[in-house]
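Model it.
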Amino acid sequence: MMLLRLKSQDLFGSIPVEFSICSFRVIFSGYFCSDQRCWYFHRVRLTLIALFSLITLLSSAQNIKSVLDRGDRSFAKGDYKTALQIYQSAEKLAPSDAKVKYRIGTTYLSAGAEVKALPYLEDAYRLQPEVDPDIDYFLGLALQSNFRFSKAVEHFKKYKSKNKKLALIADHKIRECRLGDSLMANPVLCVVKVLEWPINSPYQDYGPALPADESQLIFTSARDTSKFDKKNRSIFEDVVRSKREASGWSVPEVISPRINDTFHDAVTYLSPDGKTIFLYYERGNGDIYTSTFDGTDWSNPVSMGPEINTVSWETSGCLSADGNKFYFTSDRPNGWGGLDIYVSTRLANGAWGKALNLGPEINTPGNEDAPFMHQDGTLYFGSDGLPGLGDFDIFKSEWKGGKWTKPQNLGYPINTPKFENYFFLSQDKKRAYFSAVRQDGVGNSDICFVTFLDPPPKKETPVVVAKVEPVKEKPMGDEFADAMVSLQKDLGFASQLIGKVIDADDAKALKAQITLVDNKTNTVMERVYSNDSTGEFKIVIPHGGNYGINTSVDGYLFNSLNFEVPMYSDFQEIETAILMQKVIVGSKAVMKNIFYDIGKAVLKNESIGELEQIIDLMETNPGIKLQVNGHTDNSGDPQTNKTLSLKRAETVMNFLIARGINAERLRAVGYGKERPIVSNDDEQGGRAINRRTEIEVLENQVEVKK
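Modeled.
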């Protein structure tokens, strides 16, 4: 027995067993026995347990290392999907391993999933702050992409202190974060929407080019999966065209066999009359070509000539308003950075003259790309070298006093910490199109549509749920989204309600105004309109609040929905059909955003927005009389419940009277548990639904025809 004990001990060298596997020391001491043989027996047994445990740990560590090595090889090839699957299998073996967390986080980050990357990188840093020399940089990137600018700055500063040679990169990221805070505090008055299918596909869609009348949308798309680029592991891009129709954009089609070849081709600009197009081809090192439309088809593209196309990389270009200057991008030698913007003037013989660099006022050590010259002479372009929120942002500059003005960032929500480029602005400056990578995007990059809003009156007043005007008088331009809604959508802290608004009697599609109201502040956060012919709509529901959605159509009772989604819930697409009841005798609508203190008839402040809607309904329809119905579930004393339901209905009625509604047009009734609409067998799907306040039409002197 002694020999075995000594041999077991020798496996650990001269270090005693209890120090080799320190986690076993407490267990070992508990087995001491006065019987010497018993003492040896337990000592040997525990030594073997420690040995086997150590072998298991070493084997597990070796196994994890092997798994991580396989994942690293896939990551190095840019195969992030496979790498992520491998790293996730390692996470099952070692759920608290900092290196595993770090790799999963950086893979999500490289794949553009910054929201998913952040918690893994935060966990890796918490578990082991020195897990990798670049942890502070990548964690800073993830924080920046999630709009947590102050925290990102902290990590970029730490990265700078450890990597003096990379101080310029860290300083640039710090400037981006500080600018981001400023731009977020002063958002642009606009609504940004990612265009849906058929414009955007699950792949690459970018470079919107439109004529002055915006009757067609020409863009670059990698949606034809039969054309695969094996060398770059991507789909070859084509130039496609969509027509504006009454129901929306048509399904895009390849623009012309004369323009689309078997390799990558892209559109960079379309003249305002729609008759001249500029294209990018991977000929040489990448050149710009032009084609004209004869009314039937496009001509064979021709090169822009030696002053534009060189042995360097020329990527995009556009014409000035008078057509005599061509602004384009190139990475030719003696520039200010990577891609720079140049200008060439048309000569008397029609050829393009010597190209001139726009200089350091526009160009930076980074890249400037996709110039677009508006009819008013303002130059719009993308840049990753100018101060932005991150990646490429869109900027503008004007030619004044013989020089270009300092480029101005277009601001949030057009620009975000992700990619934005390829900007087009309508001639009246009320609409714009651009390409972006968004959290709520359809594909890898998408075409976005911007509606610019008029500035509010100088005198600022609180925005409360306003009087709803007849929807038919509301132009589509009145749609808007509060900056906070846009922010939460970009962060991934929001869901989306998708549905149709239809007549409850005949299922006819209705054009309706759908309004999102923050019940806590009684503030309108977003307003959209359903499609005229289909009744379809989409509206964002931010996470982490109590929101009411009110749907209004002239001649109908308004519809009320309530949503309260926890902040860190996953994104959801919630489908619904909103049934609208005509304002006729007997019609009822449940008020889902009227709230009371528990067991009391006292209205909560969160009810104000819904009560304002009832007031507006009665003012818009002066011939109606309403009955407010109070209901409870079947729990508790029936008589107490009936009394409570009546008091609650009376509270609502009294509020309306106090706000100017004639008392003769109102009546309150308490039904208690007498009129359930579902079974009371359970809470969530039963009793909670039965506890409700309704409005019911008693009289309508000007009834809507059925």
